[in-house]
């Protein structure tokens, strides 16, 4: 069972998200938070697998909450769900440790798939967001040594957690390296990144 915490300062949005998961046999909403601070408290209490995180909230915004969760609860996956897809919104969230980034106009089927993927530790990016991330990393050039190390481990079947352990870095860092690699390779997921890296002779 995938335990989900919904974080958004709008009650109507929270109700809609809870409704989207109703009837899904493998997903359970364990709590709702209206701010980043409330999300931190509820994560400590309910230990969810995935936190759906809005970005712009009172008291503590989404990026601030993601940074704190990366330190206090590194095993929790954070899936950003917001209306904002500007590069200045996307990159800080990914760099803070978000597993994925979806927009609120995404179809319910995409949301459900993203939650399941996030629970597996897979990065999930909305198509328009992937373009923003690509723009942010466009000047970065070829894959770095660390990005290649992460990709080699992923190709061997390692999860983000396992890769982090082998490389002595945080899961958040693994996610950041993966997202950077995705954008440089022009792909949106792990399998495609590994395939493209093999095609280019990088692995």
From TrEMBL:
It holds the Pfam family GerE. Signal peptide: none annotated. Keywords: DNA-binding, Phosphoprotein, Transcription, Transcription regulation. The modification 4-aspartylphosphate is found at residue 54. Residues 136-201 form the HTH luxR-type domain. InterPro entries: CheY-like_superfamily (IPR011006), NreC/VraR/RcsB-like_REC (IPR058245), Sig_transdc_resp-reg_C-effctor (IPR016032), Sig_transdc_resp-reg_receiver (IPR001789), Tscrpt_reg_LuxR_C (IPR000792), WalR-like (IPR039420). Residues 3-119 form the Response regulatory domain. It comes from the Bacteria. This is Response regulator transcription factor.
């Amino acid at each position: 069972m995938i335990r989900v915490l919904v974080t958004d300062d709008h009650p109507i949005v929270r109700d809609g998200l809870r409704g989207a998961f109703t009837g899904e046999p493998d997903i359970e909403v364990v709590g709702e938070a209206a701010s980043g601070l409330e999300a931190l408290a509820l994560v400590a209490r309910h230990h969810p697998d995935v936190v759906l995180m809005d970005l712009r909230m009172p008291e503590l915004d989404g990026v601030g909450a993601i940074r704190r969760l990366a330190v206090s609860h590194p095993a929790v996956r954070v899936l950003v769900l917001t209306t904002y897809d500007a590069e200045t919104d996307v990159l800080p969230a990914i760099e803070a440790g978000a597993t994925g980034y979806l927009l609120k106009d995404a179809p319910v089927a995409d949301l459900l798939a993203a939650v399941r993927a996030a629970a597996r530790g897979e990065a999930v990016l909305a198509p328009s967001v992937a373009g923003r991330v690509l723009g942010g990393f466009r000047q970065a050039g070829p894959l770095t040594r660390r990005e290649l190390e992460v990709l080699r481990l992923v190709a061997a079947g390692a999860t983000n957690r396992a890769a982090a352990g082998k490389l002595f870095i945080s899961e958040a860092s693994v996610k950041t390296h993966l997202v950077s690699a995705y954008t440089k390779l022009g792909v949106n997921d792990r399998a495609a990144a590994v395939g493209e890296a093999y095609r280019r002779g990088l692995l």
